[in-house]
Design brief:
single chain, about 150 residues, 5-stranded mixed β-sheet, 6 helices
């Protein structure tokens, strides 16, 4: 999903796209970027622990330095995704970021232990939606809407 969003954003030639994993991302990456797409699976009705760790490590160093920047959210969930989306929104609200769209939640319907642990196959339609979200963010940034 993140790769599809990055592909969509990269189609805008004036936008530099960096696809980073939560464990490797630092506060400096937030400060250097003009917009964000935060992507996480929802695990046990919450954002992934690695994403929470990213926010924990970067929240205060970025606070008051990234206000007003645009963001979007991608959630991959087995059944719902809304709680993870709410958690990301609360953090983004604290940073005073501006959501450019409602969270994009892709539901895999993985409900058994085997299905939950198995690699997920995201539909082409859902990947297209992720790509379109990335393109919308990049285009809006490029023309100054965000």
């Amino acid at each position: 999903m993140a790769e599809a969003a990055a592909r969509g954003a990269a189609a805008e030639p004036t936008v530099r796209v960096c696809l980073l994993s939560a464990p490797g991302a630092q506060a400096a990456d937030l400060l250097d970027a003009d917009g964000y797409i935060f992507g996480t699976p929802e695990n046990l009705a919450a954002m992934a622990g690695l994403m929470k760790d990213f926010f924990d490590r970067t929240y205060y160093p970025a606070l008051d330095h990234i206000s007003g920047r645009p963001y979007a959210t991608l959630i991959c969930a087995g059944s719902d995704g809304h709680n993870a989306a709410r958690q990301v929104k609360r953090i983004a609200t604290g940073w005073r970021l501006k959501a450019i769209a409602d969270p994009l939640i892709v539901c895999t319907h993985a409900q058994t232990p085997d299905a939950i642990l198995a690699p997920k196959i995201i539909s082409l339609d859902d990947l297209k939606s992720c790509e379109e979200l990335g393109a919308a963010l990049a285009t809006g940034m490029s023309i100054g809407v965000f």
